[in-house]
Amino acid sequence: MAEKNNEINYDYINERISKAKEFLEKKYNESFEVTDYMGQPFMSNYYEVRAFSNKYPEMMFTASVSNDKEGVSDSYAAKLVSKRFSDIVSKNLDGIKGYVYVYSETFVKEFPLDSADISVEEFADIIENNLMKVYVFVCADNETTENLYSSYCNIFNSLEKFSGTLYWYMTDEDMLKDIQKYIESNITLSFDFVKMTEKNIVIEDVYYKGVPQISKDNFMTKMGKCI
After folding, report:
1. Which helix (H) or strand (E) holds 123?
2. By the 8 A CB rule, do 176 and 170 touch?
3. Residue 1 pLDDT more than 50?
4. What Å distances lie between residue 23 and 46, 108, 145, 187, CA to CA?
5. What's the rounded Cα separation, in Å, for the pair 87 and 93?
């Protein structure tokens, strides 16, 4: 038991953390840090931890470790694919004057691969229904709505195999830093994130096979109210 007489057994917890770290490093052949022991869900035969790869310390993920066999299931590969997706979107938005931060979440939380060395294109071929939720935060510097719309139309270049939901926010620099800090310290977005950003959301759009659906007139109207 992790607790005895209401006292925390730190040796027990540290042993489990070490085991999780060992399994992750064996599975992916890279270095990890396990930051938190999250406990064992009731009536389960596994326990959960929070961790990050030393390659990507800003990207937290969860892992479930089996009690009775050498095995671990985790969201690392799915989170890494989402990060690579975000990197492509960010590059597609390079033409915007100012700062852009992109965060993406795949609807597939785990997939049965023993390697995280998978490209976005390979992920799209392996996993059907490649829905990706994308959050784009823009801190524009004297930008025109025409240029923003041009960038918006090209946001999913080379990502035509994906569909999902796109959220577009206009922020100031301080808010952008707070958002990035929040995302990099949380595994998933929660109600706290909604409260933090609800005043900054400008567009909620559905994109299909890499094509946003909002009309130019609607985009220009929405953007004209905030820049």
Report:
1. helix 120-126
2. no
3. no
4. 13, 22, 50, 20
5. 10
